[in-house]
């Protein structure tokens, strides 16, 4: 059965779609245990929108996840959960290819070859490396440093030219472009330079209203979680910190809760005005948002449950995806080996 998209196509996707020629889309997501509102509004809804217009390849990046997940059973389980979540949110295996990174070993081979054209200073300056190193100071493994080189290989191996991602991946995308350029300079034109495609919310703030929503920060809204959990998370959201009393007029432009309402109803202007004039209180606004998020994702949550109860179906999609990509990955690697003098 094919899951229906639960989100609207974004303006950014429309803009990308209007570019002449047929783009090849690639994106990756870590099997991190949950899928949160930031993932969906920042990236997944573009995965869904773009699969209808272009050839699209989506990858669950378990090699990348090994930089911080070290229990084999946990990684295996999370990989399946992420696949089920993406299918439940609207990825359609009839329209796109969904697979697991480690099922196509060419990714790590190309990453090694890309490492030979990548100066150490380029990876050392990556902001995500510094961020991760500070988040896990006892486990600053070498793969954290080379992480963006593997990401560049993920994209380049399929000659993808458009990459739907959130803003936090912009530096990685820029590095991917530089790596591809460095390779092309040394060995001749081989790869296309990929471009990021953003949604209209490239950075979704977390429940703290300050930092980007992220599992490692612990400020997420777990869209496929139980309704009680989603409600608790939304009710914990920080609103306008200058609004002390219920009768104080609010500032909807800085209130994360009000901003998110834009995606869950067509009464945003009215809600904006309600907050501005103190007609609506912060608690009312949060209750409404919680109800709407729970309702919006109810079909996906149900579909997710069904898929998790049928692991063979999920695994079948992933295996078929990796098989479908084999000829393309092998052809790229044959050309690369030839150019580099490896055969
Ligand atoms: P990951 O797994 O951290 O996130 C998956 C996608 O969700 C987006 N995202 C957000 N967007 C807006 N606001 C947020 N708060 C938010 N949190 C997450 C991310 O930008 C991303 O698009 N390095 C990548 C995975 C990767 C990849 C690739 C991506 C590996 N290879 C090749 C693109 C192409 C990552 O860790 O994403």
Descriptive report:
The relative contact order is 0.14. This protein is mostly helical and 343 residues long. The longest helix is centred in the C-terminal third of the chain and has 30 residues, at 311-340. A 3-stranded parallel β-sheet has the order 1-2-3, sandwiched between helices. It has 2 domains: 11-203 and 310-340, 3-Layer(aba) Sandwich (Rossmann fold); 227-296, Tyrosyl-Transfer RNA Synthetase, CATH 1.10.240. Helix content is 52%, strand content 7%. It has 15 helices and 5 strands. The structure holds tryptophanyl-5'AMP (TYM). Tryptophanyl-5'AMP binds at residues 26-30, 32, 38-39, 42-43, 61, 64, 151, 154-155, 163, 165-166, 168-169, 172, 202-204, 212-214. The site of tryptophanyl-5'AMP has 27 residues, from strand 1, helix 2 and helix 8.
Strand and helix map with partners:
Elements: H1 11-17, E1 24-29, H2 37-51, E2 55-60, H3 62-65, H4 72-88, E3 96-100, H5 106-115, H6 120-124, H7 127-135, H8 142-156, E4 162-164, H9 170-187, E5 195-197, H10 227-235, H11 256-261, H12 268-276, H13 282-296, H14 298-308, H15 311-340
Helix pairs in contact: 4-14, 5-8, 5-15, 8-9, 10-13
This protein binds tryptophanyl-5'AMP.
